[in-house]
Amino acid sequence: QTNITTHHIIMMLMKRGIPVAVATEERQQQQPKNVFSARLIALITCVVSLALQVRYLNLASTGPVQFRAHAEVGFYQRVPPTPPVPDNEELATFESRYFPEAEEEPKGQTFTELLAEKGCIPNSFCYQCLHHKHFWTAGGPELCAHRGCKCVDDLFGKEHPRTMPVVAELHIKPPTPTTGRRLIPRIIHQTYKTELNEEDHPNWSRFQNSWKHSGWDYRYYPNNKAGMYLARNFPPQVKQAYDAIVPGAYKADLFRLCVLLLHGGLYVDIDILPHLNPDIMIEADVGFAVPLDYIPGAIVNNTAFLWNGFMAVSPGHPAIALAVETMVNAINNRHQGFDFDYRMVEDLDFIYLNHDNAPLQWGPGLVGFALNRALGRRAQQKFEVGTMAISENVPGRTVILKYNKDVNDLTTIADVERNLLMATTSLTGREFESNTKNHYSVVADHNIAFGSKGVYIDQNRSGTEVRIVIDENLEVEE
């Protein structure tokens, strides 16, 4: 019985690959035929074999357990599962109000119409002077005032065009702040003229997927859906303005402001690649985050401009409300050149300095103007990178991010105070080139007023305006 048990143990160990010393019959025959010695050898062999088996079984059982324990305590990096997309309700309450009787009132007047009435339309010499590369070294504003711009000098700030009747109002109630709630909801917005695909947009589609998998709700609006969105949620004058502008960059400027006004969230251009999770990018107590605009090669980089390609905003933000109102009224009244300046600028020297800069009228100039006004500051007051002083006029903290185009040929967006690189864009090739066809610069003509050619589908002015009102007491019936 002992020999049979030992035999089974030895065979089992050999199958498991454990070396076992076995005394063969031939070798046994060479040993002295002493029964006691033979049994002693068999007993020792059995004990050693059992010890080896127990040791092997312990190793086999504890090995995987040790590996799992190591994984649990972090010896191996595990990518956390993507959190489910959060539900985001429409946080801003809004209501449109219309005043049909205002349509019967006398039409208002633009500053350009006032200049024409006074015989003071700037001539081509005025615009050539304003756009001349040696403008500042050749005498500045005083020089241009004597080269066709004198009437503007004489009238600006002294005479005013007829007031325009208000035909519609959009009342918006921002969400009520609650403890622990983010001021900026977890929504990412992007827009472009068409849907993106890997064949035509290999880089942009990858960038887009990076935002889609960020854990935030993702919303994409091609041009046809953008128009339907405006028609459904805003007074008709907003959709009319959207349809009246030609360059795609201008349409995108208006739409992004509108969608942020009602929903809040983070708007990013399609050529931006995230480097952080949006929850890290945008802290919970921030109500507005936007980069300071920077224009490489410009004679003067005006720090009153804020780059609108990356904006994180709480819903119903007063600055966005003013920006939408200003842009819609400017488009529907076909503003040109000095019309924008009359509404947005207090200092005539500032007009001369920035007259070659189309973003003053749209995009970065408009966002900077609107935020300054919402904060109770001068329209062209300069911004500095970092957190601005807390203001009761706007929700949460306002953070000005750093926008830099000189870091290893990359355009970077960074939070300097936290020393965080948030996103980059450095796209080149046919995707980028196709996008620049609709850029601000395509309608710039140094011999005519900006807006008189290539910006609008026609020159039919409405002579009326709309208002966007932040109304904390708004109550809308279900």
UniProtKB/TrEMBL annotation:
Gene3D superfamilies: 3.90.550.20
Transmembrane regions: 36-57
GO cellular component, one term: mannan polymerase complex
InterPro entries assigned to the protein according to its UniProt record, in alphabetical order: GlycoTrfase_DXD_sugar-bd_CS (IPR007577), Nucleotide-diphossugar_trans (IPR029044), Och1-like (IPR039367)
Pfam families, per the entry: Gly_transf_sug
This protein's UniProt keywords: Membrane, Transmembrane, Transmembrane helix
UniProt GO MF annotations: alpha-1,6-mannosyltransferase activity
Gene Ontology biological process terms from the UniProt entry: protein N-linked glycosylation
Entry keyword annotation includes Glycosyltransferase: no
Coiled coil: none
Protein's name in the database: Alpha 1,4-glycosyltransferase domain-containing protein
Organism: Grammatophora oceanica
